Automatic annotation (TrEMBL):
Lineage: Eukaryota, Metazoa, Chordata, Craniata, Vertebrata
PROSITE patterns tied to this protein: DEHYDRATASE_SER_THR
Organism listed in the record: Vidua chalybeata
GO molecular function: pyridoxal phosphate binding
ATP-binding among keywords: no
Record gene name: Thnsl1
Name the UniProt record assigns to this protein: THNS1 protein
Keyword Amino-acid biosynthesis: yes
Length: 738
């Protein structure tokens, strides 16, 4: 057996074994000595008896990086090719490959790995080691596997320049690109940490990134969450001792003080080189990389996260690009966010979030998810949670509250048709703001939540965009849209773009702002409202005023919102994370119906955001005009954004308009915009009429199938009364969990 053990154990430093120079430094400059000692000790304690195992394709720089990391940690460095394989075989790796052939080589290589052990070392694997399962299981037991993820085009360029001829699997008829793509599945299976390596990143920089990644992996306390209403200076020791992590906030949803959870240290930053490394990546690959940086592996390991992302986006979207970017006209591009199973942008979060939630919750408790929707969230959350494994459905149920008369007929048909054995829709005789406020109040009602926990063993959780796990996946498609424009040659990386988003609850806009903070060059963010234009007035004046405002039903119901929940996260961010200020503002809004930003905060806000609004008449006119000129049908929300973008853009750079829903969901308004005189009230007939136009995009497949199967089934209706809502919740818990 091949063994390499850690160098001489760390000795206690005493006056007897210190050099006179060290002793002098310790006595004369104790602070400097302490810093040197802390640095030395932290590097050695980083490993302990564990190994750092570098994995990646040939040409990724594993050997060079490994030497630098080993030098920094003052520990043994082992190159599997040079120090293990060639020593064991007594011949070069290329000679062995030529001698025994591809399949036998992998087996022999795996056997050598099985007979190898080390402790406290930096190990550089061969490019083909991960293809032998037993060998990798053996070496992974005592190590942290770090994947040096280098873009395929960069690897091909490096290998070509080095004229490497010992690539396992390369043969006539199989290209180098095919070999590298094939191997990715094995790298993804084994790694604990991914380190992004760009084209021109020096090995010294990669080594530092490896060390930083290992430190992050070993310390989940670096990534905790706080409430938007908590004060950094005013937190008690008890609050500091009960740090909340990603899994905690996914389960809890809303903070106990009524605030929303945000990362205490902010979101991770990507370098330009790291973003550029994702230009050729698929949507699923981009999602994996971004979410790995935002979710600590102690909460969800990389391998499990990959499985969840593949489940969410692999087969449930009708377009292989998941969120394609389509040129509309001039400098305007549409980010199509409606290719999911329920035809709206909500699918991006709600195909993913249920699986995150099911993984994070303890197995000993039942959970009831509460959702408030102005339309699209309802069917999306019902569909998402219905795709959980049967064992998860037994302990996770969902109730969806929506304004009974405040959604489109097709949206209502969807929500009713998507009800499952563990998921129900309840119409409320009020508007969305009441539904959303009611849910917040239920969560902060400790008497009621305590009763449910004691009496039924059931906890409440949220799946609205107030839940961090709902907001996080939305960052991905904003970043991906920019990378797609670069990939299509529309812009070069670093060139700015503007974005325009129809928004009422501010979640989609906040996600774009987060993407900007993470390094995507977004210049101007345009908020588009309909006649419920509270957000527009706030962005223009700094005054958020609900006094005398009544919700207006419009053709774009998903933004028929007066209280924007996610605005709280944004104000917390630009307000230097001042929880007391946020608490003051939103308490004033709740109690007095208005608040006003200070002048300096308004200045910060207006550097980030501009806003406009659009009437129903202008919305329908835009749909008609775009169809006549391009043959493309916008949905009503996208039309609102198109109108506002036309008014506020300066045409000096591309503008990405978020197309947040498929027009099929709003067929009556679309048919009216297309000047159809007689409109059949049956939703299925309306879709068949729209399909006769042969427009782009075609009728949504999932929506059509849902309406064919279900029609307009039964659902419960509830009065706009808190006691009535709580009674509904208790009854549903009794029926499902008891």
């Amino acid at each position: 057996m091949f063994h390499i053990f850690q160098y001489q154990p760390l000795r206690l430093i005493t006056q007897n074994n210190l050099s006179s120079m060290c002793l002098k430094l310790m006595l004369s400059r104790p602070v400097a000595f302490a810093q040197i000692w802390k640095s030395w000790f932290s590097s050695h304690s980083l490993l302990g008896k564990k190994n750092i195992i570098l994995m990646g394709p040939p040409g990724a720089g594993k050997t060079t990086t490994g030497r630098i990391v080993g030098q920094k940690l003052d520990c043994p460095v082992i190159d599997i090719d040079d120090d293990v394989l060639e020593t064991t075989w007594n011949m070069s790796v290329s000679e062995k490959l030529q001698d025994v052939g591809y399949e036998e080589f992998l087996e022999e290589e795996g056997k050598a790995l099985l007979n190898f052990s080390a402790s406290g070392s930096v190990i550089s694997l061969s490019g083909s080691n991960p293809m032998h399962a037993a060998g990798m299981q053996h070496i992974k037991k005592n190590g942290i596997v770090v994947y040096l993820d280098v873009p395929t085009t960069v690897i091909m360029s490096r290998l070509k320049s080095k004229q490497m001829d010992r690539i396992v699997g390369l043969s006539p008829g199989i290209s180098l690109k095919d070999v590298l793509q094939f191997r990715k599945q094995f790298y993804k299976r084994w790694f604990d940490i991914r380190v992004l390596c760009g084209r021109d990143v020096a090995a010294e920089v990669v080594a530092e990134k490896v060390l930083d990644a290992v430190k992050r992996y070993q310390d989940s306390e670096l990534e905790t969450f706080i409430s938007t209403r908590s004060s950094r200076t005013g937190r008690s020791r008890e609050e500091d001792s009960h740090k909340l992590h990603f899994s905690d906030v996914v389960i809890q949803g809303l903070a106990l003080d009524g605030g929303l959870f945000v990362p205490e240290r902010g979101l991770p930053k990507f370098t330009a080189e790291e973003w550029q490394g994702l230009i050729e990546a698929t949507y699923i690959e981009r999602a994996q990389v971004i979410l790995e940086k935002c979710i600590h592996p102690a909460d969800i390991p990389a391998s499990k996260l990959a499985e969840i992302i593949e489940t969410a986006y692999g087969e449930n979207f009708s377009c292989s690009k998941v969120a394609p970017v389509r040129h509309l006209a001039g400098n305007q591009f549409l980010l199509e966010l409606f290719h999911g199973p329920t035809a709206s942008f909500k699918d991006f979060a709600l195909q993913l979030m249920p699986h995150l939630f099911a993984y994070c919750i303890p197995r000993s408790c039942n959970y009831l998810i509460l959702v408030a929707t102005s339309g699209d969230t309802g069917s999306a959350v019902l569909d998402g949670f219905s795709r959980l494994h049967d064992t998860d459905k037994q302990r996770i149920a969902l109730v969806n509250f929506f304004p009974e008369d405040g959604v489109s007929p097709i949206q209502k048909s969807q929500m009713i048709g998507c009800q499952k054995e563990n998921a129900w829709s309840v119409g409320v005789k009020s508007d969305f703001d009441f539904c959303q406020t009611a849910i917040k109040q239920i969560f902060t009602n400790s008497d009621f939540t305590g009763f449910l926990a004691v009496e039924y063993g059931t906890a409440l959780a949220a799946a609205n965009s107030i839940n961090w796990a709902r907001l996080l996946p939305q960052i991905i498609y904003h970043a991906s849209a920019y990378l797609d424009l670069v990939h299509q040659g529309i812009i070069s990386f670093g060139s700015p773009v503007d974005i325009c988003i129809p928004t009422g609850n501010f979640g989609n806009m906040l996600a774009a702002f987060y993407a900007k903070m993470m390094g995507i060059p977004i210049r101007k963010s345009i908020c588009a409202s309909n006649e419920n234009n509270v957000l527009t007035e706030f962005i223009r004046t700094g005054v958020y005023d609900l006094r005398g405002r009544k919700l207006i039903s419009s053709f774009s119901p998903a933004v028929d919102i007066l209280k924007s929940s996610n605005l709280e996260r944004y104000l917390h961010l630009i307000g230097n994370e001042d929880g007391q200020l946020v608490t003051q503002l939103f308490n004033q809004l709740e109690n007095q119906g208005h608040f006003q930003l200070q002048k300096d905060l308004l200045g910060k806000l207006q550097q980030d955001l501009v806003a406009g609004w659009c009437s129903d008449e202008d919305c329908l006119a835009a749909i008609h005009s775009v169809y006549n000129t391009t043959g493309y049908i916008l949905d009503t929300h996208t039309a609102v954004a198109k109108v506002v973008a036309d008014r506020l853009q300066d045409r000096t750079c591309p503008i990405i308009i978020s197309s947040t829903a498929h027009y099929s969901k709003f067929a009556p308004a679309i048919l009216r915009a297309l000047r159809i005189a007689e409109i059949n009230q049956n939703p299925l007939s309306q879709l068949h009429l729209l399909s006769s136009y042969s427009a782009l995009p075609p009728i949504h497949w999932g929506l059509l199938e849902t309406l064919k199967k279900t029609g307009n089934g039964d659902h419960q209706v509830c009065a706009a009364d808190m006691s009535a809502l709580m009674s509904h919740i208790e009854t549903l818990i009794q029926n499902h969990f008891m």
